[in-house]
Amino acid sequence: MPGRLEGKIACITGAGSGLGRAIAGRFAAEGATIVAQDLRVGSAEETVGLLPDGDHFAQGGDVADPEAVAAVFAAIDERLGRLDVQVNNAGVDRLPGDGFDRMLAGEGAQIRLMEHAAFTRMLEIHAGGTFACTQGAVGLMRDGGSVITMSSIAGIAGWGPVHYSAAKGAILGFTRAAARELGAMGIRINAIAPGVIDTPMTAKVDDAMLAPMISMTPLGRKGTADEIASTALFLASDDSSFITGQWISPNGGIVTV
Ligand SMILES: NC(=O)c1ccc[n+]([C@@H]2O[C@H](COP(=O)([O-])OP(=O)(O)OC[C@H]3O[C@@H](n4cnc5c(N)ncnc54)[C@H](O)[C@@H]3O)[C@@H](O)[C@H]2O)c1
Fold first, then answer.
1. Is residue 194 a contact partner of residue 247, using CB atoms and an 8 Å limit?
2. Which residue has its alpha carbon closest to ligand 1 atom 2?
3. Among the atoms of ligand 1, which is closest to the Cα of residue 63?
4. What is the largest CA-CA distance in the chain?
5. Which tens digits make up the pLDDT trace of 229-252?
């Protein structure tokens, strides 16, 4: 039986770790050719090395840098000539100067300790990166396509520091507005808003800090990267052919709006 993404070309940012690596693996197993993009190009190359044989390749670059993003899509155009699926997954939850460590040390609320540059850099990576990568991707979607953005329950319900929650909320607004513009081109765009998922990002967080969230989660555990890959596969494939401008939140039930 052909895979659900047989013959499709998919670019995944932040593909060198966690959710991006799991999505790359699932999409490739379903027949897609993968462009694995990451700030750390070596980790993207490692992801490509884990995939079944194909024309997959890795690209480096910071998604917050429009020139670096333009180079990624120029390389895709040159090597593969088109794109069908774009997953805007790259992201961070902490930045130097964001006051997290000082908050943990008992100096007070993080919002009072955060430097302005840390706030705007977070928006540049998540909102700016999502904008630039979507812009680059849709230019190569010659026969419609699917764009997936990566928000968070932080963007829906404020489960996160203010820079991260603001950035993840911006991604939801972007996704809704872009859906209105892109529908006429046969391009769908939807957001995934995960809860707490077991990846290198959350492994950095002390279990004691996550315990209250887990105890408020009806399913009583963290999600797995594979569970997010399943959601991404649904949104990338024709199984979701009438869905655009929406968010879906695999979160174990902690947020139910
Ligand atoms: N893990 C969770 O619980 C969770 C929950 C909700 C949302 N998310 C979001 O899912 C996405 C993936 O998270 P993860 O848990 O896999 O994290 P991760 O840290 O394991 O992986 C993130 C990847 O993104 C890359 N990256 C970071 N900044 C980049 C940039 N400027 N340009 C290009 N690549 C960059 C990193 O190098 C890394 O390989 C992020 O957007 C994150 O905010 C994660």
1. no
2. 197
3. 32
4. 58
5. 999 999 999 999 999 999 999 999
